[in-house]
Amino acid sequence: MQSSYDKSWKYSLFMKNPKERAGILSRLFFSWMNNLMNIGNKRVLEHSDLYPLLDEDRCKGLTEKLEQTWHEEIRNSHIKGRKARLSRAMMKVLPWSDFALAGLSLFIAVACNILQPLLLGLLLSSMLHGGNVQYDRWLCLFAGGLCCSALFHILAMNQYQSKVDYMGMRWRAAAIGVIYKKIFKLRLKDLTRVQPGHIIALITHDAQRLDQIFQKVGYTLQGLVELVTVTALIWRLVGFQAVSGIIFLIFLLAYYIGMWDVCMKLRLRIARWTERRMGVMKHIVNGIRAIKMNTWEWPYKRKVEEIRRKELQYVRQKSAILSTFETFLHTSSIVACFISLTVLIITGVELSTYSIFMVLALIRTIRLSASSKFAAGVNFIGAVTGSLGRIQTFLELEESVYSEDTYSRKRTRSKIRSFLDLTDAEMSKYLSAEDVTKISNDIRSGKSVPQYEPVLIKQRSLDAPDNPSNDIHVTFENVSCHWGGGNKSVVLRNITFRAASKELTLINGPAGCGKSSLLAAILGELPPTEGYISCVGKIAYVPQIPWIFSNTLRENILFGKPYNPFRYQAIVNACNLQKDIDKLSDGDLTFVGNNGLSLTEDQKARMGIARAAYSDADIYLLDDPFAPVDARVAEQVFGKCVCGLLSKRIRILASRQLQYVERADQILTMRAGTIVNEVTSQVMGYRSVKLHSPGESRERERKCPSNKTVEFAIEEEIQEKYRTRSNLFEEEEMMGPVSCTILWNYLRTGACLPFIVVFALFTFVVQGAILIPDMWLLRMSESATLLNLDQTTWYIYAAMVGGVFMLSIMRASFFFATTLRSSERLHQNMVVSILRAPVLFFDTNSAISILNRFSKDIGCMDELLPSVFLRAIQITLFAISAFLLPVVLNPSVLLGGIPLFVLFLLLWAYSLKTARQVRRLEISSRKPVVSHFSETLMGLVTIRTHSMQKSFTEDFYGYQDSHSQGWCMTTSCWSWIGFRLDSVCVLFIVSVVAGAFYVKLDAASTILSLIYTLQLLNDVSQNGVKRSFEVENYMSAVYRNLACAEIVPEPGYAMEIQPPVPWPKDGAVSFENISLSYSREGSRVLKEISFDVYPGERFGITGRPGAGKSSIINALFRLVPDCAGKIMIDDVTINNLDLQRSRRGISIITKEPILFMGTLRMNVDPFLSHTEREIWEVLEKCHLKSWVESLPKQLQQDLADCGATLGPSERQLISFARALLQKNKVIVIDEASSTVDYRTDRLIQEIIRNCLLDSTVITIPHRLSTIID
């Protein structure tokens, strides 16, 4: 099978990763990234520009290594009698040299960080004893040591960050790889113990956390070591009383950890309400046609807003906690310093310049590492522990083992001829002379068959010994099966039958009777608990829900088999796919992704049949594949393919439809998991349910003059809207920095203009206020005697500290409130915009993309963006303060400061241009990993049946390596940027020291300047730049949501003309020269259609798919804006009426019944405009009264998950009850019986005949018998 993933990583412009041959200095300074950074500044990067992965980073090797160590861990745990731990196995995946290098780098970085305040103290002491030559020598030595410690700190810290990022990536790739390989080992029965969404979450959430595990462990160790060391230094250098400030930080640390736990609990509550809200939004997006036709927009809007309000309650509580985190981030060191100095004064310790600034320097050293970072590390480790536990639980799922006593499956060569061995006369049934000529010419010219390789297939021997045990067959002997423990879950009971070669076995029965479970048992997905299953022969399987994977249409049919154009074309013809292929832009080489999003269900079903036919199997299991296929097309495919090409094979067809009974050799009727009878079609003599031809239909029409059936002979149109999806709201990222317009619209949504201006000024004032307490300490240090400071001076200092804290928390609170208000209002605008959007919008944008705006992007705006945005603002303002403070204290610093400031900005702009593009490539390469994983889960049985596990696993490795390639380049970009920006900060430290020496600045001012400049190393380069980049990424969510809120609505919502009351009164419908197209550039689907439907008439619309049946309904409900002509109901032209009022005058019953979250009564009477007596009368007419009376709460029964627990019959009958209750004179029935069993179908026909006598009924039938009877 030709892989569908982007192989550009294999064909990189750089055939080898420069890191492989990079020297020590190149690795130390990340110079091996220079080439990529230059390319990114010259042009737009493509995936082929990225450096190829190193061998040790490839998913395949990492996965195999983890599999090996995990199996060893399980074996050792059994031997030693202890519990297996996935973490122990994962530790062995990476070489110990990686841990040693990371540990050494962290040790050097921590040592240098602790050394800096010591050197500051020595420098301060030397400056205070200035004038002595010996002290001057030491002064230079300490100053040089301070600069060198800063340099070694950035070297070690950047190396540590790079190393642990790569280690985390390898853990993630290995974990995802073993999860993917595990799903192939689990049968459907095993997978019933875990939800598909949970498996997806393992790779999208749990495994993703492994990226940062080593970084967070490092934070925890760094914080612990620095906290203990700084505590000892303060005790030793200043006094034990000064440890009181450290104690405050320890309590603050406990607060962080405790509040993180509270935040996690709030996150779970938020997630529950988000899930409920998204359940409603999913219902809106998937059922938008029904919602618009039934005018349910505003009830759904109120429901979404109600849930959203409850969701925001917990978001606000979490935001209140996060606002304190952001406040303490920049005020905790000020408060801790105040506490230490206050305790020193209270206990009578004489304060000195040395003691003041040593306390300040030491506490500032651990401001981040021993507070927020340490707490984040502790909580993250707890979260990762839970993630590893969930991954381990999944890996430990038991795999079904089949006993030879209950299940036997052999793949043996059939004695049946392959299709390639057919005679010319037989082949002519499936290939026309034109097909043969065209294929032969294409082969000779090499045109349009690039994948064709002549394949010599050995003819199957027709003289094989007649060994009964090897005859192709499927045999069940008293088989019983269940999906889970307990007799209540038994799905098959005492099944006995045998299917032999050349036989068509039809398994018939109502929904839920066990048809699909029986096929699953044949496939080995549902092992028998009793009895014996024997299956001999190669199996092909067509699932009930068509499965299409991301590749070309041709590859979906070939599915790993060699391409033979004769066989391929014959199968395409037999499955009636040629016309559909001709409509596609690139024919059968057209890429079909997202589970065949660009295809109709009818086309996907026929592609599934074609795939099975091309596999040339011995046994074909068909799980109702013709359900979504048009009746005429289904009859043709059934005759040509199932009963033609595959006539020599075993065919087992599970279906509720009876038109296939006549051709079946064996009929198994199932009820409640058992076979109630087993007869042959000859004995049964069933002839009455075959498809009527048009002639027969007209003959029946003449016998039933009261019903008028009009067949519209409209030319088939494959609508362009289904062929090219615009993906307007795909995960597009902004290519440049945050647009001022986007930022302004975001803030303006949450606040008025005066508030924004005042808040911006207030933010600058607060940042200035944060400097005042330290400047006051500088003033106090200049006093002749600090011991005798008057109380007023200290009270002013205390007031400053308290004021700074209050102002900071006000700033954080106002900011969070504003951003949450923006998120709340933008969500409201988005809901209204989606509900009023044209239906064409939903046809040209995938449901997943639309729903992502309300889940992922709104979640980002609620919880991620406010915190990161505020932190970026605070860090930026602090960086400006840290630059200006030394300049104010010593203007000579400007000589070196201005060039360095310009260099910093130039480096920032230069590097971020490439970093943005690499990040964009990394994000785009992440989607195929999840998409391929999801596709595998959906098509697991098909993949396993066709033995395609290895091919799909190799594809997955490719996808994962492509993402790892982008991820490695992203983290390497950050290392390149971080080291260079840190280096500029080191040069600025040198300039501050040099400036202080040059002007002989006083000791206190010099030390205060250096305290602030040293913080630039962490706060600006390591945090500030990354936070600003994160803001850009998160603002992409705002950008998409703003676009979603500005969708052009349907024009009819702005119309205010109302029809007379009552309307409609009679139910006469008239179409006059109606022409319709789904886009202005597209071809017309309806071409000047005119007809009249008289009051009380039964009016049928028939035609094959694409003929325009649904387009007539769309025109009647004004779902398509580009519609010419005039539609009248009771002599009232609806084109200019208020849109919702015109739709409210028509009732519709759709193919897929739509229910919404709420009570049963709300679903029957959405506007609560009828009495309970009227509702019970309607329920009785729809044969639902006894069922409703059996419910615990009857009419007030809650329909969980929008009625998903109800069967299709109950859901459809509720739709009929709703239509009857509305008492409209015009009722549209759109294939209402296509999803229900025959009993419900008969009830529906009875309702139509007896209860809709006074209404005009327009019907689009699933079967002609629906309108003929």
From TrEMBL:
Listed transmembrane segments: 93-116, 136-157, 233-257, 333-363, 751-772, 792-817, 868-887, 893-912, 979-999
Domain named ABC transporter: residues: 474-697, 1069-1268
Membrane topology: Multi-pass membrane protein
InterPro entries documented for this protein: AAA+_ATPase, ABC1_TM_dom, ABC1_TM_sf, ABC_transporter-like_ATP-bd, ABC_transporter_C-like, ABCC_6TM_D1, P-loop_NTPase
Cellular location(s): Membrane
GO cellular component: membrane
GO MF term list: ABC-type transporter activity; ATP binding; ATP hydrolysis activity
Entry keywords, A to Z: ATP-binding, Membrane, Nucleotide-binding, Repeat, Transmembrane, Transmembrane helix, Transport
ABC transmembrane type-1 domain span: 100-372, 757-1018
UniProt family annotation: Belongs to the ABC transporter superfamily. ABCC family. Conjugate transporter (TC 3.A.1.208) subfamily.
Name of the molecule in the record: Uncharacterized protein
